[in-house]
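Handout, page 2. Input:
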Amino acid sequence: MKRAGPETGATTGIVLLHGRGGSADDILGLLAHADVPRVAAIAPEAEGRSWWPTGFLAPAAHMAPHVDRALAAVTQAIATLEAEGIARDRIWLAGFSQGACLACEAYARLGEGLAGLIAFSGGLIGTGDATGGPSEALYGHSPKRFDYTGQRDGKVWLSVHEQDPHIPQQRVRETANTFTALGARVQTRIHPGAGHGLMQDDLAALQSHLSR
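Output:
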């Protein structure tokens, strides 16, 4: 687990989650684009640089042990920021790609009272397998359930390219609908064309959310 930001006096915290093949140092580099000097960031690092070995659309039984282990790392990161004196409602979850999927799932399961979620190219993993067979809209995978409870009063930024090879738009829409139903204020940005990466709008959103 790596840390960035001021050692004292931080007013906002963020848990940053790297993508598959990335690292804690990589994702902490995002803060250099945000110009938010009073933000403390914690970045857990996955063993082998991957939170799970397959795509996030895999069956629930396959995903569950990996997701449980990854969520424990997020819980520890949140607790570290709270121990530094940052109020829970000033702590954000954020990530890219596989890290964005983990951030979404963490906000849905653990995020009550947090400031919100910033997810670049990611979506919810889900709480279990739903009825229905493989779907072209889910890249040949079967649907999932999204049985989350509680209230999420924070803000949510979701972004994805309209032709993302890893993140289907349908899952992003399901994620937006789920968080809206839980009470969050959701913004969704579909970047035109093919791609799997951050755009200028994403960096602007990161700065805007952390500057509040």
